[in-house]
Specification:
The protein is α/β, with parallel strands linked by helices. It has two domains: 2-127, Rossmann fold (3-Layer(aba) Sandwich); 146-288, Rossmann fold (3-Layer(aba) Sandwich), CATH 3.40.50.2000. It has eleven helices and 13 strands. Strand 9 (146-149), helix 5 and strand 10 (177-180) form a beta-alpha-beta unit.
Length: 307
């Protein structure tokens, strides 16, 4: 059986590369596994879509392209949406979704927001967690530094507050904040004025994040990497997927994760650098990893049932 894992791979986005690593490893025994990415048309006995293929937040053209890709995959074989995110906001997009997804054989989503949106359109979906959470933990005891990750398009006031906050935290800790690039060619625009760290691999990114005292970030996978590394984080929730992730982590925390705008430097340091908070983050990580593992295993069972 030819299995194609389809996502935004090879484009310099470390979150998508993490998904590629996890899915390729998990499916190794299910058949011949290869990766494919836009603008290629997926061709295989089974095509597994990952990441956030169903969204029109950044561009309606993205949703239209993935709609065509799903239809093309369905004409040749089975289609799986594996723990994907859904963020379709336009009226036209929401009218289109049921037509697209009736061709799909298996649907799972990564958070309650995505499941609720599909449910409002009469589309059933299983709920698990983002597969990137199955990367190995990378805890370290040598921590020094403050990292800031931002995305283009943030309101100017939010970006300015995030910069002020990161610099204030770094000043308290006696270090200089550094900008952290998760998506090459994009994040640099939002991190002007900072010394940049731009890892080329997922392992390198996790190693750097694991060595930080604290990180401040917008991108979902930047925050997921921090959770995996046991690094306390402050969030800039620029999209529903980030807010949904924070709510899932907070199920096991003694208080909310600090957010920008609104976070206080003094209160944040007091709250999230304590051993008690670090232990709670570990519990949250283990629970989310178990839910992510269940989701990947559910897809593998589906493939075996087809064989």
């Amino acid at each position: 059986m030819d299995v194609v894992v389809y996502g935004y791979f090879g484009k310099g986005n470390l979150g998508d590369e993490a998904l590629a690593e996890v899915w390729r490893g998990a499916l190794a025994e299910s058949g011949r596994v290869k990766l494919s990415a836009p603008l290629q048309i997926p061709r295989g006995d089974v095509v597994i879509f990952t990441g956030e293929p169903l969204q029109d937040r950044t561009s309606r053209r993205s949703l239209l392209f993935y709609s065509l890709a799903i239809q093309a995959a369905a004409r040749r074989g089975r289609v799986v949406l594996g723990a994907v995110g859904v963020d379709v906001r336009s009226f036209v997009g929401r009218q289109l979704l049921p037509r697209i997804l009736r061709r799909v054989d298996y649907i799972s989503v990564r958070d309650p927001h995505s499941r609720k949106l599909l449910g409002s359109l009469g589309i059933g979906a299983r709920e698990f967690r983002d597969a990137a959470l199955l990367l190995p933990p990378c805890e370290t005891h040598r921590r020094r530094g403050v990292l800031l990750n931002l995305v283009p398009g943030l309101p100017p006031g939010t970006r300015a507050e995030a910069l002020r906050f990161a610099r204030g935290i770094a000043r308290r800790l006696g270090v200089e904040p550094k900008g952290f690039v998760m998506a090459r060619g994009e994040d640099e625009q939002a991190l002007v004025g900072l010394e940049l760290i731009a890892p080329r691999t997922v392992d390198e990114a996790r190693e750097v994040i694991g060595g930080a005292t604290l990180v401040v970030g917008a991108r979902l996978h930047f925050l997921e990497f921090a959770l995996l590394c046991g690094t306390p984080f402050v969030a800039v929730p620029y999209a529903p997927k980030v807010s949904a992730f924070l709510a899932l982590v907070e199920r096991d925390l003694p208080h909310e994760i600090p957010r920008i705008p609104g976070a206080s430097v003094r209160d944040t340091l007091e709250k999230i650098l304590s051993p008690h908070y670090g232990a709670a983050l570990k519990v949250a990580r283990e629970k989310l990893q178990a839910e992510a593992r269940e989701g990947v295993e559910d897809v593998v069972r589906f493939l075996r049932a087809m064989a």
